[in-house]
Amino acid sequence: MNGYELLDSGNGAKLERFGDVILARPCAQAVWQPQRPALWETAHATFDREDGNRWHGRRRLPKEWPIDVDGTRFRLSGTDFGHLGIFPEQRAQWAWIRETVAAAPRPPRVLNLFAYSGGSTLAAARAGAEVCHLDASKGMVQWARANAALNGLESHPIRWIVDDAHKFLNREIRRGRRYDGIILDPPTYGRGGNGETYKIERDLTETLRLCRALLSDAPRFLLLSAHTPGHTPVVLSNVLTQALRGLGGAVSSGEMLLTGAEGVFPLPSGAYARWQA
After folding, report:
1. In b/e form, how buried is each residue of 190-215, taking b as 16+ CB within 10 angstroms?
2. β-strands 4-10, 158-162: how paired?
3. Which of 45, 203, 258, 259 has the most crowded Cβ, counting Cβ within 10 A?
4. Residue 33 lies in a domain
């Protein structure tokens, strides 16, 4: 049994199964009516933002628990912001990363920016890539390292970096380091450990310019995703096409979806654009 499943959605919320734990959380995109209203009564806990961020029934959640998603193990825990340590709408992207890395003529060097708990890092590493994992949060990098250990990747060549993305990218350019693949999932708004701020509408173009400068002479791919309203597949495709103009290859784009059993409405949860040589 796969460790993740979208059970239902509607009335501005989503009902999901993470292993044996069923959770209801807000989802503004779910403007339709729930299809399986009785199933919502089975939720172990719910999260809402009506009076600040609040869990209801959090005591019924394990402090942490592991799940297996498409052969990769993750450690989950309910955070104060309603996150759990995984974005399962990225599952299709993780599969694409594994396939693209495995198809490379030699093990590629991959950079994962804004890397959160490491789903994309694990996908690339499992397929044989050497990976640099970067996030501004020390706690999230530690969480990602724990996920790597869960998957037997403790000794795999992964660099774990806690830093501001642009500061790190500029240093890597000065060092002459290059990457065959780059993955980035920039936040709508983020704050670094030293007070740096990141705003996607202000900073994404510069981020992509720096990423372009870090690509090797024979790059394989660049994968951009975002959860920011208004940053649609067309928007991401346009900015990526412009940033990588002259490299050849092809850009494709689409919606990221949460999915469940047959008949359960798929739930849009962000967008992606990817360039492949």
Report:
1. bebeeeeebebeebbeebbebbbebb
2. unpaired
3. 258
4. yes
What is the count of structural domains for the chain?
2
Same domain, yes or no: 138 and 227: yes
Q: Which amino acid is at 106?
A: R
> Would residue 45 count as lying in a domain?
yes
pTM of the complete model beyond 0.90: yes
Q: What is the DSSP string of 81-103?
A: TS--S--GGGHHHHHHHHHHHHT
DSSP 8-state secondary structure symbol assigned to residue 122:
H
pLDDT digits (tens, 9 = 90+) for 100-117: 999 999 999 999 999 999
Q: Other C-beta atoms within 10 Å of 175: how many?
A: 8
Name the amino acid, one letter, at 2: N
Contact 172, 182 (CB under 8 A): no
**Maximum Cα–Cα distance across the chain:** 58
Question: Where in the sequence is the domain holding 102, given as residue range(s)?
Answer: 88-276
Asked if the structure places residue 112 within a domain, the reply is: yes
Report the alpha-carbon distance of residue 84 to residue 4 in Å, rounded.
12
**Tokens 């774990």 belong to which residue?**
160
> Tell me: the pLDDT tens digits for 144-164?
999 999 999 999 999 999 999
* Shared-domain flag, residues 96 and 169: yes
Q: Structure tokens of 47?
A: 């999260």
CB 117 within 8 Å of CB 140: yes
